[in-house]
Amino acid sequence: MNIRFAEIKDVSKIVEIVNYEILNSTVIYDYNERTYQYQLNWFHQKCKDNMPVIVAEEYGEVLGFGTYGIFRPWEAYKFSVEHSIYVSREARAKGIGKKLLTELISIAKANNFHTMIAGVDASNAGSIAFHKKFGFVEIGVFKEVGYKFNTWLDLNFMQLILKE
Questions:
Q1: What is the mean pLDDT of residues 82-93?
Q2: Cα(24)–Cα(63) distance, rounded to whole angstroms?
Q3: pLDDT tens-digit profile of 28-56?
Q4: Distance (Å, rounded) from C-alpha 150 to C-alpha 116?
Q5: Domain residues of the chain, as ranges?
Q6: 162: which DSSP letter?
């Protein structure tokens, strides 16, 4: 398996992975599928903002991707990033998320970011445990901030200090 920076050719697989999660999970608090053009614009904006988009690829097929961006859009937050990692449903439980997060943390440290934040659906015990293995700590839970599949959703914020 190879972890590399994403290219335009990867956008179609990225949108496929994202749309599956939108339609079938509470991993993404959104209702509407993304179009290819929407995801392409997202990709170009990430490149323009110098924010990484990486993919896990095996035998030429993208199995997952990860990215991060500035946590909030004000100047004082410029050292804090929030990350996202998604693995295709066919490729789960193969260590892909671990490889993607390891690489994102490495990139963030190399770019002198101070902290990395994860917003995790509070019912997703697997993702919470996954982040804890990397040293993320639970900071707080926002109660009933999302609504999807006729259910109120709690959002758990987790944080990893990158620079001590």
A1: 92
A2: 18
A3: 999 999 999 999 999 999 999 999 999 99
A4: 31
A5: 2-161
A6: S
Strand partners, 141: 156
CATH architecture of 2-161: 3-Layer(aba) Sandwich (3.40)
To the question of pTM greater than 0.85 for the whole model, the response is yes
pLDDT of res. 37: 98
Residues in contact with 59: Cβ distance below 8 Å, sequence separation at least 6, in sequence order: none
Output Rg (C-alpha) for the chain, integer angstroms: 15
Mean per-residue pLDDT, 144-157? 98
Q: 48 near 40, Cβ under 8 Å?
A: no
Q: What is the pLDDT, as a whole number, of residue 93?
A: 84
* DSSP-assigned letters across all residues of 80-140: EEEEEEEE-GGGTTSSHHHHHHHHHHHHHHHTT--EEEEEEETT-HHHHHHHHHTT-EEEE
